[in-house]
Amino acid sequence: MLQLLDGLAAEIDANQIATCVYAIHDPNEGRLVYASAGHLPILVRDEDGTVQRADEPTGPPLGTGGWIHASGSIALPPGSTAVLYTDGLVERRDEDLDEGIAALERALSGATGTPQVVCDRLVRSAGVTPDHDDDVAVLVLQHPARKGAEAELFRNAALELLGGVEAAPRARAFASGVLTSWRFPAELHDLGVLATSELVANSLQHGTPPMRLRLRRTDRRLIIEVTDGDDHLPRRRRAEPGDESGRGIAIVATIASNWGSRRTPGGGKAVWCEFVLQKP
For this protein, what is any one GO molecular function term (predicted)? Predict the structure, then answer.
């Protein structure tokens, strides 16, 4: 993603550069995976108020051209809050930038409540007023700690795919058992098993070990994901009538609400699909 934006930035104005951070939250693993093009560090506050700072940027600013931006990660477990922000929030002409970030860390340590409440408190603590002389953007992300009946709506299960082609029937049986235990209706159960079968078959044919199947449900979605060690992302294509393969991704795209793929930190890829759940 950042490589594409880097090229776009150079095309727009070769004399300008811009910073950017792109992040994906994985609630199953409790981590925030990010790539940073010269951007300020992400801050994460855990439940007890301890604030951690993400590592240094994983690449130079956009518009510098020709660089490979690596990925980093930082823990974001249930009950924690992540903050992404621009330099207008922490940079002042009369003080060092690190002092501004440290002040933001202190403000975040005592900030609780909804994302909007946390955001408002951080902006006030930085002394930002309507006549502030720089643009300010703040994004607050929370991973809620869910309990009781609400927690039952947020479930996940995983299976390591071992043994070559023998992994396919095991994956289908695993998905069927999980979806049954989550009490999905028969139609969604069958679609989920079919999507699992096609994603696993695609990985077995085109991917490399290690391979893993993950199923996750939220209060709004069922997400099915397969990861493997090959970093070539799949594309949907039209199979000819005589082709014996090549329809898997097309089937997934047809039956699911959405699908996609991404490269994973350390190499490999994840291919996923999701089904939007009907409101009770």
Answer: phosphatase activity
pLDDT at 32: 92
Show the tokens assigned to 103: 């002040």
Of 127-131, 182-186, 197-201, 219-223, least confident by mean pLDDT is 127-131
Structural domain harbouring 80: 2-143
* Beta carbons within 8 Å of 28's beta carbon, 6+ residues apart: 156, 158, 214, 216
Q: Does 246 lie in the same domain as 182?
A: yes
**In which residue are the tokens 């695609």 written?**
202
Query: Tens digit of pLDDT for each residue in 113-160?
Result: 999 999 999 999 998 888 777 889 999 999 988 887 777 788 899 999
Is pLDDT at 110 greater than 80 in this prediction? Answer: yes
Number of domains in the chain: 2
133 and 169 together in one domain? no
What are the phi and psi torsion angles at 140 (to 5°)? -115, 125
- Based on the fold, state whether residues 164 and 191 are members of the same structural domain: yes
